[in-house]
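pinging the channel bc i need a second pair of eyes. not urgent but kinda urgent?? the chain im working w is below, pasted from the shared doc
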Amino acid sequence: MAKKSKQSKTLPIYILNGPNLNLLGTREPEVYGYTTLAQVEQMCAKQAASHGLAISFRQSNHEGEIVEQIQEARTGGCAVIINPAGYGHTSIAILDSIQMLKVPVIEVHLSNIHRREPYRNHSYVSKAATGIVMGLGAQGYLRAIDAVAEILKVKK
């Protein structure tokens, strides 16, 4: 699913999605919305292109694979946007890999995790993230791209 825009002269933004996000649009749409992950990818590519950036958009249900993608972003990406999904609440391995990054990291959650069940109120990823966008549904990804563009001072 990796996509790199021809207009970009910089490394892509890695947009990483955790477990069950492959079911976005059909899994608990009252919580996560009706937008599919493929639609989110299209929206992100368009938003990034508007800032002269490209994306590498990925999803995995496997913690180790996400860790490897984060490690790849150390040299292959200009920033990371990550929706860790359930791994945000449980994964020290993902936290450790994010802490190695020297690029901006924006954590995204479709729902507001602080308005959910108590076990969802904590995210290990937040400890290492540059910023957090939550509770805005799929639009949160677009706000995260805007934040990355601002941090990188990329002009439209």
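so DSSP finds five helices and five strands in the chain. and Residues 2-8 have pLDDT under 50 and may be disordered. — does that match what u expected or am i reading it wrong
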